[in-house]
Write a structure and sequence with these properties.
It is a single chain. By secondary structure, the chain is mainly alpha-helical. It has ten helices and four strands. A two-stranded antiparallel sheet has the order 1-4. It has a two-stranded antiparallel ribbon with strand order 2-3. A hairpin with a 3-residue loop joins strand 2 and strand 3.
Length: about 325
């Protein structure tokens, strides 16, 4: 009995010792973590540069396809369908790549589905019943292909692109992403940003007869209730997205700040191009002024909330705090 007990003890000790020997040492764990960090950094660097290349190609293609719409005095829509669809798809790919890298694939797919489906419903209701845009309207008969024989395919795709911009600018607002008040603030501000985009997009589109309103309105022939409709559609898009999908990026996440910076710089360039088109076609500063009054504060909000990830705001605060100390020393 004693012999069996001793044999069992020896077997247990042998198994335990072999298990301990097979366990990785702390030095091995540290080396592996360093290796994983190097590989992760290399992968992030590759993804970053791949994003830059893909994004530049997409933006370049979009600008090239947009130039005819900016500088041509008259547009033959039957000859521009392929150019219009190509430009929309290329910038849409750029937006999707950015949404995946700056957020997640899950959030990108969710936003695309929410924005495209809700905008398509709103467009269908607007074309047939004038809800929620205040009047019925129709798209140019030469724009193709069309969904339900009334809505061009590029329209819900364009809604995704336009609606995504305010998300990038506003999602860093507020430190607590789980705060209901902060989420509601983001939803309202993003909806205002969506309306701001339509303040110059709608006059520009009606000037080239991309669509025609059946009831004349005060703002370049556009019903004022149209902008209320855009705000309502914005609420419907952003509310489910910010409540169930989007989470605020960390202030120290330089990678996402880099991607957002590329997107914001591109958006500024495209807005400037649109402003040139507005001036050439409408010869009015009203849409340009409306854009200047609304978008720069949103860009400023993004800048203040994003750049501090690199320590800019803390350095500014330290500099401001040092001013009284320096003045006190100089007085002595």
């Amino acid at each position: 009995m004693k012999f069996e007990y001793a044999s069992g003890s020896i077997c247990f000790i042998n198994v335990l010792s072999s298990t301990v020997r097979s366990m990785p040492r702390k030095s091995d764990i540290r080396a592996k973590s360093r290796l994983d960090g190097i590989l992760s950094n290399d992968l992030q660097s590759v993804l970053r540069w791949a994003f830059v290349v893909v994004y530049l190609v997409m933006v370049g293609t979009t600008i090239v396809t947009a130039i005819p719409f900016v500088f041509r005095s008259a547009i033959e829509w039957s000859q521009m369908n392929s150019v219009l669809l190509l430009g929309t798809l290329t910038i849409l790919v750029g937006v999707f790549v950015h949404a995946c890298l700056a957020g997640s694939v899950r959030n990108a797919v969710a936003f695309f589905l929410i924005a495209s489906s809700l905008s398509l419903v709103a467009e269908y209701a607007g074309v047939h019943w004038g809800i929620p845009f205040g009047s019925t309207y129709h798209y140019h008969e030469d724009i193709a292909p069309k969904l339900f024989d009334t809505i061009p395919v590029f329209i819900p795709l364009a809604w995704i692109v336009v609606a995504y911009g305010p998300v990038v600018l506003m999602r860093r607002l507020g430190r607590d992403s789980n705060n209901q008040k902060k989420r509601n603030t983001k939803i309202i501000l993003c909806s205002i940003g969506l309306v701001s985009a339509d303040l110059f997009l709608d006059p520009l589109a009606t000037s080239v007869h991309a669509w025609t309103w059946h009831d004349d309105g005060f703002y370049f022939g556009i019903p004022l209730f149209n902008f209320v409709g855009w705000f309502v559609v914005g609420i419907c898009i952003y509310a489910p997205y910010f409540h169930f999908c989007e989470r605020q990026p960390k202030a120290t996440d330089y990678r996402k700040a880099f991607y957002d910076g590329c997107y914001v710089a591109t958006s500024c360039g495209l807005i400037v191009l649109a402003m040139i088109a507005v001036w050439l076609r409408l010869r009015s500063v009203i849409p340009i002024t409306a854009t200047i009054l609304t978008f720069p504060p949103m860009f400023a909000c993004w800048f203040i909330r994003t750049i501090p990830g690199s320590g800019l705001r803390s350095r500014i605060q330290r500099s401001l705090a040092a001013v009284p100390e320096m003045s006190g020393r100089n007085s002595k």
